[in-house]
Amino acid sequence: MAAAAMALQVVAAGGGCCCQRPVLGPDRRRRLVAAARAAAAAKVSEEGKVRLGGSDVAVSKLGIGAWSWGDTTYWNDSEWDDRRLQEAKAAFDTSIDNGMTFFDTAEVYGTALMGAVNSESLLGGFIKERREKEQIDVAVATKFAALPWRFGRGSVLSALKKSLDHAYEQGLVKAVGVSNYNEKRLRDAYARLKKRGVPLAANQVNYSLIYRTPELNGVKAACDELGITLIAYSPIAQGVLSGKYTPEKPPTGPRANTYTPEFLTKLQPLMNRIKEIGESYGKNPTQVSLNWLTCQGNVVPIPGAKNAGQAQEFAGALGWSLTGDEVEELRSLAREIKGIKMPIEES
Questions:
Q1: Is the four-CA dihedral 179, 92, 125, 10 of positive or negative sign?
Q2: Which residues are part of the catalytic machinery?
Q3: pLDDT for 286 beyond 70
C-alpha cells in the first residue's frame, strides 16, 4: 500500500465569537501573546491535557478513534444498524464523561459511496446532541487524501492550499497535521508549512507495543526533534493487545490475515507478562498497552471505541504510569515478535 498524503485538521467544537480588536504595537502584541500562551499552558497542565505540537490546540492525553462508526467495509460485520448507532453514541458520551474529549475521524470513514454512514456526520451529530444538554469542549481531528475524484498530485495540493487559505488562516481550523508520513515527508511538510508561519501539529501513524516502526524509521525521533505530536492509531493493534485473542481463537475478518494463529502463538510470552504487570496495578492488558504508549512521551494514542464498555476501559489507562524498567522490559519482549508488515508509512 502506498503512503497516503493526508491532512489532519483539528477544530474546537466549543462556541466562539468575532469582534473588532484595537490596533496594538508589535511589542505589546508579543507580550500579550506570550502571556496568553503562558496562561493557556498553565490551564492545559491543570486540566491534564497536552498541546498538539506548536499549535494552540490542547487535547486529552488519550483520544478516541471513530473509524468504526458507520463503517461497513472493515468493521461491524459489513452492516450498520440502529443498535450499532446507539452503541457508538454511548461510546462518545462515555468518553466525554471520562475526560477523553479528543476524537479522530476522516472523510473516508464510513464513506457513503460504500453504502455506509459517514463517521464525520455521526460525530457531528453526537456533539450537537450533547451540547444541547451542556457546554462541552471537544477537539476533532479529521483527514482527507488523494481520492479517485481528485485527479493527480495537483488536485491534492490545491485542496491543501485551499484548506490553509480558507480554514487555518481564517481561524476555522486550529491546527494542521499529516498522517502516515515517513521521516522525509514529515520534515518536508514541516519546512513548507513553517515558511507560511503554520506549525505542523501532528503526524498520525500506526504505533503500538508490537508495531514500533516509528521508533525504527526515524519518525518518532523527528517528531520529538521538531516538536510534532505523534498521534498513535491502532495503539492496541486492532484489539490484539487486549488479550482476548488466542491461537485457538484468532480475530475474524480482514484482521485474520495479519494476526494469524502462528503470530498469536509468538505473542503469548509478551501477553503473559503484560497481564502480570497489569495485575500489580489492578489494570488489564488493554490499559497496560495504552499506558506503555503514553510513557513514550509526545504520544497521544487514539484507540477505537465501538461501545461504552470499551470507552470506559480506555479511561483506565490514564492517571497512573508504568515504571521505566517495566516500559523497557515490555519493549525487549516485543522485539522477539516478528511478522507484522504494514509499510504504508515506510514507502
A1: negative
A2: 109
A3: yes
